[in-house]
Each structure stands twice: as structure tokens, then as C-alpha cells.
Amino acid sequence: MINIGIYDEHHLMGQGLKLLLERVPEFEILFCADHKDQLMTLAQNRSLNILILSIHDTSVRTMNLIIRLSLLNPKARLLILSFDSSEETIVKIVKSKAKGILGHDASQKELIEAICTLRNGFDYFNRSINQMVLNQYIDKLDVPEEQTEGLNSLSERQIEVLKLWGRSYSNQEIADELCISVRTVDAHKNHIMQKLQLKSTVELVKFSIKNNIIEI
Q1: Please, what are the domains in the chain?
Q2: Which of 8, 30, 58, 122 lies 20 to 30 Å from 155, alpha-carbon distance?
Q3: Taking the CA atoms of the chain, what radius of gyration do you get in angstroms?
Q4: Residue 53 backbone phi and psi in degrees, to 5
């Protein structure tokens, strides 16, 4: 089971999200809060896996809330639902240590995939957001030599998965493209991240670009 907490200051929207996620058998909704004080108390639950935070502005207060939550319960990975998908807003959210970002126009499929991806230990950004993050940071990262050497240890199939993953294909899209199961895609991803010593999807995409695996 994936234990989930939800916060939206608009009560009806939070309840709607709760009802949507309760339909997924693997999801357990631990709480749905609409007040910050209530949220800060409930978010300390050590069994919490994913905390979905719906934000309606990018004020200093909101960004500080994200940072405080990440420090309050480091084991709970933060998924931000943002009404504003501008580059400035996305960069602010990334800097606040959130592990995943979705726009409020995201589909149910994207939301479920984001939750499962975060639970598996990876960051989640959809395609448009991935591109924004890359534009901001691709020139600022150096690829460690051991990562470059690790590329030679990848199999041909892992290289294929890496190319599609670096282009922000979803697990299901990669599985469909390569005629393999989603479970196999997950296994390949885990092995790739271990061999290349990468910790996030963003690092993976940057690595792929610097090594000419994908182009932007």
C-alpha cells in the first residue's frame, strides 16, 4: 500500500482529489487537510509515503511551507500540484526540494504514475516541466567521471530504456514502445540508476544529454 496525505486549502477540491485516489486499490488516504496547522500536525505521520500539496500561489510563505514539510518528515516525498506552470514558478518549486510537480490540468493517469514513481524513489516531472528544468540547469552540472564510465556497463536494452526515459516517456509508453512489461521497465530503471549513480529523473536527463544519448 502507498500511504498518501492530501492538502488543499479549498476543501471541495481536496475532497475531490481524495475520492479520485481512493478508487486505486493500492492507495491508502491517511488524511485530507485544508488548514496549514492541521497539515503540519498530520504530516509528521511516519507511515506517510506521499504528501500531495495543492498550491495556488508561489508566495514566500508557500515556498517556505514546502521546505518546512520536507524537513518535518524527510521520508514523505512531496508531490506539488500547481495552478501556475510558468517557468519561474516551476524553478521556485524545484528549489524548494519538492520531488514531483504536476500542473492542475494533469490527467488521472499522470497523477497515479507520479505517485508510484515517487514511491519507487524517483523524482517526477512531466515533459513540459522537465524541459523547463533542463533549460535552467543543464549547463550548471558536470557529469562525474565514474558516471561516464558507468555508461559502458549498460546493456543495449537499458540504453533503449534510457533514451526513452530521458525524453520523458512514461513507464507505460516505454513498455509499449519496446514491447515489454511495465514491471520490466521499472527493473531497467533501477539498474540504470544504480550503475550510473544517479538519484533523480532530472539528473538522468542531464546525463543523457551530456553523453549524446538524447538531444534537446
Answers
A1: 2-135 (3.40.50.2300), 141-210 (1.10.10.10)
A2: 122
A3: 17
A4: -115, 115
